[in-house]
Amino acid sequence: MSWQAYTDNLIAGNKLDKAALYSRNGDSLWAQSGQFQLDNKEISEIAKGFDDPSNLQAHGLYAQQQKYFLLRNDDRSLYGKHEAEGLICVRTKQTILIAHYPSGVQPGEATTIVEKLADYLIGVGY
């Protein structure tokens, strides 16, 4: 399966409307849905935020120039919220999955989809 198929599958269920797959260091975009691409500073801050979230806690989580309030952070997942929309970032052994859910979607439903894909990728060595 190509990397593009993973982002396509994330948005196929209508709970997520944008998705991207980056290398674990955030230095390479592997796949994206539509025009969902973060600028270099945004993905760099997300990649650093898994190990040290202090900057994201102080200044917010950014994607496509939109600021999200950081709700959760650990060495695997970062969750952000802006009004009724949200951002989910999950790090695997070799990738960072980033997905956006629109207003009207329950955050738990959206996070489950991304976390399950991350579990699958980890299980197959990625």
Can you put this structure into words, describing what you see?
This protein is α+β, with helices and mostly antiparallel strands and 126 residues long. It has one domain: Dynein light chain 2a, cytoplasmic (Beta-Lactamase), CATH 3.30.450. The protein has 4 helices and 7 strands; from the N terminus they run H-E-E-H-H-E-E-E-E-E-H. Strands 2-1-7-6-5-4-3 form a 7-stranded antiparallel beta sheet, with helices on both faces. The longest helix has 17 residues, at 107-123. The model has no long low-confidence stretch (mean pLDDT 95).
Rounded to an integer, what's the Rg over CA atoms?
Answer: 13 Å
CATH structural class: Alpha Beta
Per DSSP, what share of the residues sits in E-state strands of 2 or more residues? 25-35%
Mean pLDDT: 95
Q: Do you know the CATH topology?
A: Beta-Lactamase
Structural class based on helices, strands and sheet pairing: alpha+beta
Q: Work out the count of structural domains.
A: 1
Q: What is the helix fraction of residues, given as a range?
A: 25-40%
Could you say which overall geometry the principal axes of the C-alpha atoms support? globular
- Helical element count? 4
**How far apart lie the N and C ends?**
13 Å
What strand line-up does the widest sheet have? 2-1-7-6-5-4-3
CATH superfamily: Dynein light chain 2a, cytoplasmic
Low-confidence stretches: none
> What does the main sheet amount to?
7 strands, antiparallel
Based on the structure given, which CATH architecture is correct?
2-Layer Sandwich
The count of strands amounts to 7
Give, in order, the helices and strands: HEEHHEEEEEH
